[in-house]
Design brief:
By secondary structure, the protein is an alpha+beta fold. It is 23% helix and 38% strand. The strands form 2 sheets. The protein has a 6-stranded mixed beta sheet. A hairpin with a 2-residue loop joins strand 6 and strand 7. The protein is globular. The relative contact order is 0.13.
Length: 207
């Protein structure tokens, strides 16, 4: 039988000890990021007001995560989206006063970004009307954009915009922006970040 040199036996043992040491340290400091989803479709929300009102305004209160609700307000074909423990609280947040000049709407899926099970941001897909790009019927086409919104504790406000057409991986960029910026974002002081390439949707939203 061929003898293995003694010096070769020492390295695996030392490596095992180092791995064990790091194994004890890393789980204590590691954070687990995850996504879950809720619906903001009218059938899943409590609608306040009637679409046939003269100004077309409606308000929807949709169930969220961790005791939070999503407040979606529509006025003159423009939406605002806010989050809070209840409708009244959500209506007082900066996000409830943040709207885009072009006509716009949101998709009916809300992505909740969480760390260790605690949500800290939502990601939503917006469709922004482009009056300079008309379809065959003469109506404005829409351009997709993802918006990242930070959640309590602290104010609720937009953190980042990601253009849905100019970037090949907008969903991943939105999650990365949420994970890196949302929790430390200072509403009212920090400027909303444009992540990735700036395309038509972001340009329209930022006017």
């Amino acid at each position: 039988m061929k003898r293995v040199p003694r010096r070769l036996l020492i390295v695996p043992a030392a490596t095992t000890l180092l791995a064990a040491a790091f194994g004890l340290i890393l789980p204590a400091n590691a954070q687990t990021f995850s996504s879950s989803y809720t619906s903001s479709a009218p059938k899943d929300c409590h609608t306040i007001g009637k679409p046939e009102d003269s100004n077309g305004s409606t308000t929807q209160v949709c169930p969220g995560k961790s005791g939070l609700v999503v407040l979606i307000s529509v006025d003159d074909l423009r939406e605002t989206v806010s989050v809070g423990p209840n409708r009244a609280a959500a209506a007082k947040e900066p996000a409830a006063e943040t709207w885009f000049a072009p006509f716009n709407s949101t998709a009916h899926t809300v992505e909740w970004r969480a760390v260790d099970g605690r949500p800290f941001a939502i990601i939503q897909r917006w469709l922004i009307a482009d009056n300079n790009a008309l379809d065959k019927t003469g109506s404005p086409t829409t351009k997709p954009m993802l918006a990242v919104t930070r959640l309590p504790p602290g104010p609720v406000c937009h953190v980042a915009y990601i253009d849905g057409q100019a970037n090949r991986n907008p969903n991943e960029l939105a999650r990365q922006a949420a994970d890196e910026f949302a929790r430390d974002f200072n509403c009212g002081k920090d400027e909303v970040k444009v992540i990735g390439e700036k395309g038509a949707a972001v340009s329209l939203a930022k006017r």
